[in-house]
Amino acid sequence: MAGRLEGKVAIITGAAQGQGAHEARAFIAEGAKVMLTDVKDGVLDLARELGEAARGMKHDVSDEDQWNAVVAETLAAFGKVDILVNNAGIFAPGAVTETTKASYVAHFNVNQLGTFLGMKAVIPAMKANGGGSIINICSGAGQRGYPDMISYLSTKWAVRGMTKGTARELASFNIRVNSVHPGIIDTPMIGGTAGDAKLMKGIIASVPLGRIGTTEDVVEPVIYLASDASSYVTGAEMTMDGGTGL
Ligand SMILES: NC(=O)c1ccc[n+]([C@@H]2O[C@H](COP(=O)([O-])OP(=O)(O)OC[C@H]3O[C@@H](n4cnc5c(N)ncnc54)[C@H](O)[C@@H]3O)[C@@H](O)[C@H]2O)c1
């Protein structure tokens, strides 16, 4: 089924690789125009490769001025903003007593502050457009308590919470806000782990469906939340974790 995002304009952060890159490709295949952003230069190459329906920008999601520039560029290129996928993120493991303030603040800046600034930046354009869909990429680590990842876990619980509050705040403007909660997904974020056969065996053993996820497992729910098929869905949590959270 193609054309589910025909005529829509999306901003996807963290789109140089992993889930964000896959979402950008899939959104364009579904008929959307996409502004891809990332701190990495590779986002510009990918946007060029994707052609006329894509634009790319270097963008640090923790910088408010850069967010305003991304929205302005998107409006200049494509005329409106229908969809924001707040996907950029960083992850480093660490127990409470071993985590430095610098690591904690770094996670806050990208995962939590970046998500807040993104929502704030697109709301005026979405209001002017009569509505929109904001998709905050959260995590299973925003639904349960996991040890040894205090920085990441804190930010993802915050993202889950701000999704629900903002969904209530924006419902009367027809702006929907939902969160997506992947389990372990095979992307560069877990690249170090994939090479460790023993660790991977342990991780897979903890997943009822018996495998780690792929970016394809995440992209379908994201397309659904971005499309009009989910027009009555806001403040929801979409979980794709192979049953890990059961
Ligand atoms: N891979 C997993 O197992 C997993 C599980 C649950 C949730 N997630 C979440 O999914 C999202 C996508 O992660 P991924 O798995 O594709 O990881 P990834 O590391 O492959 O991609 C993350 C992207 O975000 C970009 N980024 C980092 N800091 C940024 C900043 N300040 N501004 C803009 N871009 C920045 C990176 O350059 C990278 O391209 C993240 O929010 C992550 O927390 C991942």
SSE arrangement:
Layout: E1 9-13, H1 18-29, E2 33-38, H2 42-50, E3 54-58, H3 64-78, E4 83-86, H4 101-128, E5 132-137, H5 150-170, E6 175-182, H6 191-194, H7 197-205, H8 215-226, E7 237-240
Helix pairs in contact: 1-8, 3-4, 4-5
Bound molecules: nicotinamide-adenine-dinucleotide.
Nicotinamide-adenine-dinucleotide binds at residues 13-14, 16-20, 38-40, 59-62, 87-91, 110, 137, 139, 182, 184-185, 187-190.
Question: Oligomeric form of this entry?
Answer: single chain
Query: How confident overall, as mean pLDDT?
Result: 96
Number of β-strand runs = 7
What is the third-level CATH name, the topology? Rossmann fold
Q: In whole angstroms, how far apart are the ends?
A: 31 Å
The CATH class: Alpha Beta
Structure description:
This protein has 246 residues and is α/β, with parallel strands linked by helices. It has one domain (9-239): Rossmann fold (3-Layer(aba) Sandwich), CATH 3.40.50.720. It contains eight helices and seven strands. A seven-stranded parallel beta sheet has the order 3-2-1-4-5-6-7, with helices on both faces. The longest helix is centred in the middle third of the chain and has 28 residues, at 101-128. It is globular, with a radius of gyration of 17 Å.
Give a short summary of the structure.
With 246 residues, the protein is of the alpha/beta class. The chain contains eight helices and seven strands; from the N terminus they run βαβαβαβαβαβαααβ.
